[in-house]
Amino acid sequence: MNTLIKLIKRYQGGSILLLTVLLALVLPLALDIFRLNLVGKYLSYGFVAIGLVMLWGYGGILSLGQGVFFGLGGYAMAMFMKLEASDPITTKIQSTPGIPDFMDWNQITELPAFWLPFKSLPLTIIAIIAVPVALAWLLSFSMFKRRVGGVYFAVITQAVALILTVAIIGQQGFTGGVNGMTDLKTIWGWDTRDDSAKYILYYLCVALLIFSIVICRWIQKGKVGTLLLAMRDKEDRVRFSGYDVADFRIFVFCLAAAMSGVGGAMFTLQVGFMSPSFVGIVPSIEMVIYAAVGGRMSLVGAVYGTLLINAGKTFFSESFPDMWLFFMAAVFILVTMVFPMGLAGLWESHVVPAWKRLFSPSLDKKTDLNSVSGMPTKLGTGVSHESI
Amino acid sequence: MSFDDLLNIVIMQGFAGLSLFAVLLLMGLGLAIIFGQMGVINLAHGEFMTIGAYTVYLGSTLAEFISPNWVNTYFPFAIVAAFLIAFFAGWLVEWGLIRHLYQRPLDTLLATWGLSLGLQQAFRTFIGPKEVSPTLPDWIMGSWAPSEGLDIPINGMFVLALTLFVTGAVLLALHRSRWGLRVRSTVSNRAMANAVGINTQRTDRLTFSIGCGIAGVAGAAFTTIGSTGPTSGSLYIVDAFLVVTFGGAASLLGTVVSAFGIAQTQSITEFFLSGSMAKMITLSVVVLVLMLRPQGLFASKIRR
Questions:
Q1: What is the chain A residue with the closest CA to B110?
Q2: Which residue of A315, B39, B120, B303 has the lowest C-beta tally within 10 Å?
Q3: In terms of Cα–Cα distance, which of A58, A189, A57 is closest to B107?
Q4: A69, part of any domain
Q5: Which residue range is the domain that position A124 belongs to?
């Protein structure tokens, strides 16, 4: 028991436990299944947000193309479910039975070769992680080895997001085009749309999310996390100490891509469709703001940020659709200008000190070195204006 | 098909590429100044173009309102007005937003994205969600037919001429004026420029505003090609960034060359394939080249 408490303290597990309790107990009891399903959908963006915490907060690399990996994971899952939904019996009115309906509409008579692996669930699950990681590795290997970073990386990942959207929309026969893949119902005959399935999927999503957070926290506390922070602030010194900076960046980019892919798959499972509108530039940048609102250095904060922004989006688009973009604009500008460390930063700078003053006045003078793990007091100290 | 027909197709196809080149270059120029020279990522650049386009629309409505004679003459004035309005909008944005974020380029990116969302919604709320096009003067419509079967649209030639004029003016200003001297010295060494008495803050503000003003001119010019809606700016933004990055961020000449290359690649592939495939292939080629040569086509030789 004591070792467990030590472990929790070392990895700051309190906040993770709190989040687990909130997601696994409080929300399911407080919300009906429709709202809970919405929360599950938001949480699938949370995977992208915690990936961005690792990539952007710790690694100092901003990717504006995380929607690409989210989309690849989502589409992989969708392709499996679409194939299962279009077996020869249900699609016998088509001119070619046994292929997805949108292929039939586009005069395609045979299943394309790249669809074949998605007939099997194990291969699909592998693809959900492997395809995003492979693309991320390709992109990041050539860029980071050539020491491209900062704004250039952001611009190029943005271009990749545009390419993928154009490709999906343009190749309607292979991808379902702008409508995406719809009518996804079953996995191995298990109906994913009834209420009990929705609960199971929600808990699966929460479990995977908490698992990802734990893994990320473990990486942060280890050597790699320390090195990532060091690279973010003084890249040259890390290089002079004999580390290959590029390798660590490639690793963290692939990690973020893998988690985004899982998030995409959970999205498809819970929402029941996938479309290019979750892949492109706009959703990709929106995902960055989830992490920014929650706090770019805080894994748990990123999840809260995702929930908050999405709840706001749902609320505004239900009640005041015109105000939504103004609200979003204000959030973007306020977060970057006024509180760049997000909610987690406000928590560390205002709530925690107030709490300590209330309950342990003796500790007032002592600065707690462990409280703000690796949060820089001033942002961007490593990036001077000239170095861009 | 005779040889003449073939020649006409080649000429018209070449001209289609040239007008795409003009469009890309005009979009890229403002960014080349803001992103290339100052290193600021301005994702609201497209919205400054939209401001320019709406200025022309306003001008045409005003001209029609005053007298029909004005319709033929308002356009040059509207372009100047587009420059001025976008210039002052840029001035305000630099003062309110950008100058606080120079030390954090990635945060500038997020803040300007927020700005662009806000502006888009503002256009939608205050001007209207529908796409509008100004009444264009007669002399810009139609096409020029120097020989049988050869049609060259006049609006394309107009945009091309305007682009060449603006590019020339920017190049001249950057290399022959005091402002250009200040910008170039600020870019190459901010601290030193400050030390020799250049007010780098004012230089930054002026540079940013001029970049925005050029975006306004670009938007004004695009009203001759297509209609303007609240989100038209966002269609251009990625292309514009790619043009500047591909050319090598700090080099204006690079921007010109890359705009030419991208435009010709796209219009030639468009001739053989569908529009979306052409776009995909062009973008992929650009990204691949950037992965192999991240500094762009024309890299400035500064030690980093």
A1: A332
A2: B303
A3: A57
A4: yes
A5: 2-333
What tens digit of pLDDT does each residue of A45-89 get? 999 999 999 999 888 888 988 999 999 999 999 999 988 888 877
DSSP assignment of A268-311: HHHHS-B-GGGTSHHHHHHHHHHHHHH-TT-HHHHHHHHHHHHH
Domain membership of residue A286 (yes or no) is yes
Distance in angstroms (rounded) separating the CA atoms of residues A107 and A128? 28
Size of interface A-B (CB pairs under 8 A): 139
| Spatial contact of A128 and A248, defined as CB atoms under 8 Å apart | no
pLDDT at A264: 94
Q: Which helix (H) or strand (E) holds B111?
A: helix B105-126
- State whether residue B117 sits within 8 Å of chain A by CB: yes
CA distance A180 to A264: 14
Q: Over range A201-221, report the average pLDDT.
A: 93
CB B72 within 8 A of CB B182: no
Query: Minimal CA–CA distance to A23: which of A47, A43, A51?
Result: A43
Pair of tokens at residue A91: 């699609």
Q: Cβ A169–B276 below 8 Å, yes or no?
A: yes
Q: What's the predicted TM-score (pTM) here?
A: 0.86
Best of B113, B184, B190, B234 to disrupt the A interface by mutation (most A CBs within 10 Å)? B113
Q: Is residue A374 one of the residues assigned to a domain?
A: no
A102 backbone dihedrals φ, ψ, rounded to 5° = -70, -25
CA distance B101 to B94: 10
Cα–Cα dist A55/A150, whole Å: 12
C-alpha separations of B114 from A106, A302, A331 in Å: 39, 19, 7
Closest CA to B228 of B124, B159, B135, B131: B131
The alpha-helical segments, DSSP class H, found in A172-298 are 172-175, 195-221, 223-233, 235-240, 245-271, 281-294
Q: What is the mean pLDDT of residues A239-261?
A: 92
Domain count, chain A: 1
Long-range contacts of A307-310 (CB under 8 A, 24+ apart): A307/A39, A307/A42, A307/A43, A307/A46, A308/A343, A310/A38, A310/A41, A310/A42, A310/A45
Query: What confidence tens digit (pLDDT) does each residue in B66-111 have?
Result: 877 777 788 888 999 999 999 999 999 999 888 888 888 788 888 9
How far is Cα B186 from Cα B43, in angstroms, rounded to an integer?
Answer: 22
Question: Would an 8 Å CB–CB cutoff place B72 in contact with chain A?
Answer: no
Domain boundaries, chain B: 28-139+154-292
Tokens, residue A8? 């929790």
